[in-house]
Design goal:
16 helices; alpha+beta; single chain; seven-stranded mixed sheet
Amino acid sequence: MSMRQMGQAARHGLRSKLAAALLALPVLAATAPAQAETTLRMVLRNDLATIDPVASTATFARNHGFLVYDQLYALDSKGKPRRQMIGSEEVSGDGRQWRFTLRPGLRFHDGAPVRAADAVASIRRWAQRDVVGRALAAATAKMEVVDDQTFIIELSRPFALVKQALARPTASALFVMPEAVAQTPATEQITSAVGSGPFIFRRDQWRVGDRAIYLRNPDYKPREEAADGLAGAKVAGVDRIEWISIPDPATAMGALSSGEIDYWELPPSDLVPVLETMPNVQLEAIDPVGSQVWLRMNHQQPPFNDARARQALLRAISQTDVLDAAGIPPEDRVERCGAFFYCGTPLESQAGTEGLERPNPDAARALLKEAGYDGRRVVFLDAADLYTNHAATLVMAEAFRKIGINVDVVTTDFATLTARRNKREPVEQGGWNLFVTVGNVLDGGDPLSSLYLASPCQGGLAGWPCDEKLEELRRAWYQEQDPAQRRRLVDDIQRQAYQGVPYAPAGQFRTRAAFRSNLRGIRPTTVPVFWGISKAAR
């Protein structure tokens, strides 16, 4: 079966399930009690499996974080950091001393005031895990509390993007927790979900694999500015949010059609034409730039501990086949994107892409031979509950087999994959070699924020790349004060990335969220957030 036929078969199966689900409507009525009109029911790309947005880089932890926490700064729709919990800041002329003052009246869900000590403890915990936080911490000489409302950061060396760092919205996003919670070691999961954000998590009603419940925070104090991207007023327009688990796309389609859910973040692209014909359903791209499929290699285990083996994969991947298999229509894809920092952005670059315009299996085989690949089993982790990831995995696995790699696809769900990818052991002891993930422009839109580009040798995210030259170039980029010089450095960074291959960009595409037409306030926010959304009576 060809790679395109594999994608067609997957889509045919999805249509069959859809037909059965639509015939079986209403799909949730037998178990779900009647709800008030101010309840918003949503299905996101994956279920809530952990509530710690620092210990986990998974999207579900970030989505949970935006509901219950607030940020010191937040990125607006143009990617600029705006004050969020911060009321004012003072910066020395040389940019080395920063004095931050919280805006007054902020309170946690338990009624305790938000203090500077909470902010400092939250920054310190976040900086242990996140690529941006580590970069800021490495440039920081001192961070301390002045009083309940004020704290300072003094830099030991240039760092041009302090506010951008404090607005970190994804990977291990920077959210402010109570000091006692933030003192939990970053290697341990927190157990409290007390934040100061617009919604309160009902931990006692959380059932993994079923649903998570959030209630409007009546004491939340929004900013006066209008909502803009992830910044501005976070006004809760509904009284209750139910994050529901419906892993089967056809069942989710039926629930949306019947009005038993209100919002579906990631319907498979192949179902978009059907959704477009449904009454009372709308579609909108909340991420205008789109996402990239990323192939992550384990740099610590053979054969991909050799850069030549990683370079071989670049020459085997067909982005067209990946996007075809995922059912991405022409209008929602970039036909081929070799830019690590996304096509269609100011940092788009073609540097280092020479010879990669189309697959070259012969060159791939030659590189594998140079790397000394001995035919050993290669474990490719597969998240079958994420349609795009699953389709991309199957297509790439077949392409890698054709260049002589002994690929073993291990199919599981995304929550299990996120746990296993942290294992450093050899594959014989439960380790892994490859997995696919999908990142948006907040995950990888520049050399500082790109979580899988960072190659720090010690620490780092699953895959653990080590590239000292790439790290030097990244540091030069985020220390540089001149935007024009930073832009010139992007080409050098991308050339080095194509030498070391921390991950492989495997296709850029746009998705559209589907939602009931009585929802108001859906905005382009890149990641799903639910303040500013209200629900009109049907």
